[in-house]
Write a structure and sequence with these properties.
Strand content: 5-15%
CATH class: Alpha Beta
CATH superfamily: NAD(P)-binding Rossmann-like Domain
Bound molecules: nicotinamide-adenine-dinucleotide
Mean pLDDT: 97
Strand order of the largest sheet: 3-2-1-4-5-6-7
CATH topology: Rossmann fold
CATH architecture: 3-Layer(aba) Sandwich
Number of domains: 1
Shape: globular
Distance between the termini: 52 Å
Number of strands: 7
Radius of gyration: 18 Å
Length: 263
């Protein structure tokens, strides 16, 4: 592991799930630009390879990729042990997630279980396995990716909304159990962010209409809007913050978007 001194996360080991593309890749990139060493677990080998090339070309640290599915506990166990054998994990970012639209009455048991397995049970597996190491060391940071949908519902996404609401309570409970041993646990709730996932689900017309109706800042979020929130929650600027939910949604949850402008 390299220690590129004088950078904000020099020599720190950041373990991130779903870091091969989208918001996760940007989080990995921004940590790595600040000197961190990354371990990335993702199901998609091609995207993992692209991300590793990008990190190795542009950032100073040592980076590792692991193809794996966070729902497969035994495999995750092997990966966490392997990453820990390289260097203690300082920061865990639970980011991997899936989403698709299904009207409530049409959600099959398979669809329900698929979303809950990745978005909630997967977070539980990774968190428990990594936190067993962190508790022994009496230090660590965990940051969970929830969503605006975990606080405020969206029709057509009952499975997704339920999973993201579950992450909020998982976050608070972990924070309560770990606060006295020096482990902080927080969650981030992004609003509408343009990523490969949102582009797969929504047409450009839908996105334009959604922004016009609901987002006071009049634009969709970008991955670059979200990654810095994770860096803030991982460094000493947030040293007394735990069990919190940080919303980054362009103002969407502040209330109804104005029908007319005053300024
Ligand atoms: N895009 C948004 O508008 C938005 C808003 C709020 C929250 N989020 C959340 O942010 C996270 C990232 O979303 P994104 O938009 O970047 O999605 P994305 O699909 O672009 O990236 C998600 C990554 O997770 C990986 N992944 C999926 N299932 C996995 C599994 N079982 N094991 C390991 N890796 C897995 C994918 O291969 C992919 O690389 C998700 O948790 C999502 O719910 C996204």
């Amino acid at each position: 592991m390299k220690d590129s001194s004088n950078l904000r996360f020099s020599g720190r080991h950041v373990f991130i799930t779903g870091g091969a593309r989208g918001i996760g890749r940007e989080i990995a990139k921004q940590f790595a630009e600040e000197g961190a060493n990354l371990s990335i677990i993702d199901t998609n080998k091609a995207d993992l390879d692209t991300t590793l090339t990008l990190l190795n070309e542009k950032t100073p640290g040592s980076h590792f990729i692991y193809q794996g599915d966070i729902t497969q506990r035994e495999k995750v166990n092997v990966i966490v042990d392997a990453a820990e054998a390289i260097a203690p994990i300082d920061v865990l970012i639970n980011n991997a997630g899936i989403a698709f639209e299904t009207p409530f009455l049409e959600i099959s048991t398979e669809e329900w279980e698929k979303v809950l397995n990745v978005n909630l049970t997967g977070f539980f597996h990774v968190s428990q396995l990594v936190c067993r190491y962190m508790v022994k060391r009496k230090r660590g940071i965990v940051i969970n990716m929830s969503s605006k949908n975990g606080l405020d519902g969206e029709a057509g996404y009952a499975h997704y909304n339920a999973s993201k609401a579950g992450i909020i309570m998982l976050t608070k409970t972990m924070a309560l159990e770990f606060a006295h041993v020096g482990i902080r646990v927080n969650a981030v709730c992004p609003g509408y962010i343009e990523t490969p996932l949102s582009k797969e689900i929504d047409s450009p017309e839908f996105t334009r209409d959604f922004v016009n109706r609901y987002i006071p800042m009049n634009r969709p979020g970008a991955v670059e809007d979200i990654a810095p929130v994770f860096l803030f929650l991982a460094d000493s600027n947030s040293s007394f913050i735990t069990g919190q939910i940080i919303i980054a949604d362009g103002g969407q949850l502040s209330g109804q978007k104005p029908g007319k402008y005053f300024i």
